[in-house]
Write a structure and sequence with these properties.
The protein is mostly helical. It contains two helices and no strands.
Length: 64
Amino acid sequence: MLDKAVEPERKSKPKRALIVILTALVAGFLAVLWAFVREAGVRARRDPKSAGQLEALRSYLRFK
Protein backbone atom coordinates (compact mmCIF):
# COMPACT_ATOMS: atom_id res chain seq x y z
CA MET A 1 0.00 0.00 0.00
CA LEU A 2 1.32 3.45 -0.94
CA ASP A 3 0.88 6.71 0.95
CA LYS A 4 -1.01 9.50 -0.69
CA ALA A 5 1.15 12.24 -2.28
CA VAL A 6 1.43 15.43 -0.24
CA GLU A 7 2.00 18.75 -2.00
CA PRO A 8 5.05 20.61 -0.59
CA GLU A 9 4.57 23.93 1.18
CA ARG A 10 7.16 25.71 -1.00
CA LYS A 11 9.36 24.89 -3.99
CA SER A 12 12.83 23.66 -3.23
CA LYS A 13 14.99 23.43 -6.36
CA PRO A 14 15.93 24.45 -9.04
CA LYS A 15 15.87 28.16 -8.33
CA ARG A 16 14.97 29.38 -11.80
CA ALA A 17 15.31 33.08 -11.09
CA LEU A 18 18.90 32.62 -9.90
CA ILE A 19 19.75 30.47 -12.93
CA VAL A 20 18.28 33.04 -15.33
CA ILE A 21 20.09 35.97 -13.68
CA LEU A 22 23.45 34.20 -13.60
CA THR A 23 23.08 33.05 -17.20
CA ALA A 24 22.27 36.59 -18.33
CA LEU A 25 25.27 38.02 -16.46
CA VAL A 26 27.67 35.42 -17.84
CA ALA A 27 26.34 35.87 -21.39
CA GLY A 28 26.68 39.65 -21.10
CA PHE A 29 30.23 39.36 -19.81
CA LEU A 30 31.19 36.98 -22.62
CA ALA A 31 29.62 39.28 -25.23
CA VAL A 32 31.60 42.29 -23.97
CA LEU A 33 34.79 40.22 -23.83
CA TRP A 34 34.21 39.00 -27.39
CA ALA A 35 33.69 42.59 -28.60
CA PHE A 36 36.95 43.74 -26.99
CA VAL A 37 38.90 40.83 -28.47
CA ARG A 38 37.40 41.40 -31.90
CA GLU A 39 38.20 45.12 -31.81
CA ALA A 40 41.77 44.39 -30.69
CA GLY A 41 42.13 41.98 -33.62
CA VAL A 42 40.88 44.57 -36.11
CA ARG A 43 43.29 47.19 -34.75
CA ALA A 44 46.18 44.70 -34.76
CA ARG A 45 45.59 43.89 -38.45
CA ARG A 46 45.76 47.59 -39.35
CA ASP A 47 49.18 48.07 -37.75
CA PRO A 48 51.93 46.45 -39.92
CA LYS A 49 54.12 45.46 -36.95
CA SER A 50 51.21 43.93 -35.03
CA ALA A 51 49.93 42.23 -38.18
CA GLY A 52 53.26 40.41 -38.54
CA GLN A 53 53.22 39.34 -34.92
CA LEU A 54 49.60 38.18 -35.22
CA GLU A 55 50.41 36.12 -38.31
CA ALA A 56 53.39 34.53 -36.53
CA LEU A 57 51.15 33.66 -33.58
CA ARG A 58 48.60 32.09 -35.93
CA SER A 59 51.28 29.99 -37.60
CA TYR A 60 52.44 28.70 -34.21
CA LEU A 61 48.90 27.81 -33.16
CA ARG A 62 47.87 25.98 -36.36
CA PHE A 63 47.11 22.29 -36.03
CA LYS A 64 49.18 20.09 -38.27
